[in-house]
Amino acid sequence: MIGSADGEELSDLQQAFSDHHGLQCGFCTPGFLMLAQAYLGEPREVEPSEAEIREVVASNLCRCTGYQGIVEAVLATARARLATSPSGHARTSGPAGQSSPARPGAPGGDGG
Fold this sequence. Notes:
mainly alpha; DNA polymerase, domain 1; 4 helices; globular; disordered C terminus
């Protein structure tokens, strides 16, 4: 699976998806894992907000879940990575992201 270091053990993000019931049928899971891994790889000094995470996951459609477990899994992974990072920064692997509130109509937004 995506993010697994050796194919035998789940990555922290995969484990969080399992722990927070962020997967159902599995059809959309690879897309959510890729989105979340890229988002969590951006440099950050503070924990992302739930609204920021909802904005990220809004670009991948899931018809099985209510997105809450997915959001909780990403947030838990972000918290854990920030807490264990020696510099207080999450792992970095890309450009800094811009935070934005959830869009109306997006999962968890005003219209959805």
